[in-house]
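Annotated sample (chain length 563).
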Amino acid sequence: MKFMKLGTRPDTFYTEEATRSVVSDIPNDLVIQISNINYLLHQLQFSLLPKCGLLQRLCADSDDSSAVTIQLHDIPGGEDAFELCAKYCYGITINLSAHNFVSAFCAAKFLRMTEAVEKGNFVLKLEAFFNSCILVGWKDSIITLQTTVKLTEWSENLGIIRRCIDSIVGKILTPPAKVTWSYTYTRLGFNKQQQLVPKDWWTEDISDLDIDLFRCIIIAIKSTHMLPPQLIGEALHVYACRWLPDTTKITRPESSVSQTDEVTDKHRKILEIIVNKIPSDKGSVSVGFLLRLLSIANYLGASTVTKTELIRRSSQQLEEATVSDLLFPSHSSSNQYYYDIDLVAAVLESFLLLWRRTSPAPTENTQFMRSIRKIGKLVDSYLQAVATDINLPVSKVLSVAEALPDIARKDHDDLYRAINIYLKKHPDLSKADKKRLCRKLDCQKLSPEVRTHAVKNERLPLRTVVQVLFFEQEKGSRENDHRMPTQELLLSRGKQIPILRDELSKLQLGSYEQTIRSDGIPRTPATSESSTRDDQKLKRPDKRTPLEAGKKGGERTNRGGGI
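Output written by the structure step:
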């Protein structure tokens, strides 16, 4: 950081109660009142009036020639800035830097310490310091720009804000290979001495700025069209991490100290500006960042427009998400469950609307099919993660599980695992809820290993187990590793054997009758080798099996009027 030292005399200002005085043998003849402080000074003996055009005019208007009292309550920068100017006039040593330049410059302009009053005056020296030191430096420009927050109107009128922004943006657009100044970069694993300057070297330093100044920087950068949208997105990401709350670490509202309205309003303003400044290019920010912003928006009660935009942007990049990107705690005081499953449901709904609107007739190898299959895998993996929440209601699980179209799941193994985890964590679930939970499960889309597990799973509703058994019986012969004779599977259920047999018979009869109703021609299921031998033993004299006789009877019935 650059400094400028002016004056040579030691500091002789001292405080007595609410009065600031200068050690001097000469009695004071000028009183400056600022806020609640009185400055006892001298008009001519120490060049105060000769250097300050405003004080010259005010003293000239005074009727009292012996002692003049002037009120300067509206001086920019207050008493600290005035004291810097006064010490300069007295020749007392002062140190100027990016931290106090703005207040000193505004106060000097206010007091009219210009060249028109005296050659080589304070304003001229401050302008030289600003041009040759502050604007040349990277961090000096940022610090100076940040200090303009307290004197925004004065800083704008004097051109300080514009010139600082121009200097900062100019350095940001400098090729990384030509960056020679110091910068802050605290990414893990980065070594300044051993590695080249990263492209996003500037993002951490500008995150120190107030949100309105940060917005001006981003607008200026975007207007040049010289940086890729990913770099601008990274700057927004760094700023959000610096100033917005981390919703993954916030406890429930009822067990934590709530934020003040002022803090919440500030966070909401930051959030909405960041969302508004995200480049429109897809991939300019990660889907994980978008989802985090959406979680923060829910927590802060952001506007509907902001939430809708985040849901839309997140759904466009949902394929890039991982399960960890979707896991956010719920911050609603009315919800007893931990995870914010409504957030995921909203993004999924938006994705499906877009997918249905843009996808052609689905075929196995198209990008649209691969896209929906990837989302299906993601959703089922997410359900496995949230199923461990003991307070998560069945309705919330179903709202996500049933939102996906059938073609989204090539198999139902991951869905089965999610259901099994949920049943394990909710042992007191009613039979009706168990049936609701399993109604989306398609036994024909389960792998042999999962079907083996399902048949022996005591947590599943009876109807689901019977469906698995029926499918196994219909499927016929299979590899030895996965061979499951129905009788053996029934024995594994113990006391439920009679009920299972009855349910299985109903399923067989229902399937047979449904086949007749569909086209009037009953279809013979594929038989195993053992069932073929049994049919040969039951052959009638007319060489027809009972099933074949039934087929013929069914055909006569259909010809007679049908079902």
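Annotation: The first helix runs from residue 48 to 51.
Annotation: The chain has 26 helices and seven strands.
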